[in-house]
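Risk register update: the risk of archive-format incompatibility is retired. Evidence:
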Amino acid sequence: MTRTINGLVVFILLALGLAAPSVMAQEQVSVPVLCYHRFGPTVADGMTVTTKVFAEQMKWLKDNGYTVIPLKTLVNYLQGAGPAPAAKSVVITLDDGHKTVFTEMQPIVKQYQMPVTLFLYPSCISNPHAPYAMSWEQIKELQQTGLFDMQGHTFWHPNFKKDKKKLKPQEYTKLVQTQLVKSKNVLEKHLGTKIDLLAWPYGIYDDYLEAEAQKAGYVAAFSIDRRNADKSEKIMEQPRYLMQNGDGLKGFAAIVMGHAQEKKGKKTQINF
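Archived output:
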């Protein structure tokens, strides 16, 4: 219904000579950005999507003519530095760096040759106290496939909302700098690539955090506000859809086709 209304608005504006077709076509482009966390044969927790369900979802994309594009391609468009993505474009991202990305997700991604962006928090990588996470060697192997782009997810996945309440102002400022700057530096040192995209932990962000992220060198940041990314959204709070196993194939299709968007202004924050 939303797309029908948008199309009618465009038609009326064109008929009145108030907008050029190329400009209006570009302004209507929006892309669903999907956010996964981990996979497995069974649902271990609320953030697990079974490998079977994920495989079915990726097959659905291919069978229905959708193209998975790199997140950076979308960001370039949102910044006005690149062309508009084609119709039926989708972006796949994944947060944290769970080892099932390497064991479960990788074979499916390779099968369909789909680009993926991994938002990593480096404190857990190759950490014996975080056995759920990948190693640096595994991440570099993913890099070598040419299908995985690594980006930032702060240093240890803090809850900025809770930390701001319990810390003194100077302590909180120091925490924010550590999460945004140290994490970026560590990832760039280990991976040899530029880290300039950020995923907000727990979907928590505000004006201060956005400004500090930009100072640190991030050019775009992503939430989990559950609607399509487009130019009407602020570049440091672009939305994504948090994917859960309960979405299955029907819910997944509704999201991708644009029938499952929430009203703008509603922020989604999840307790992991």
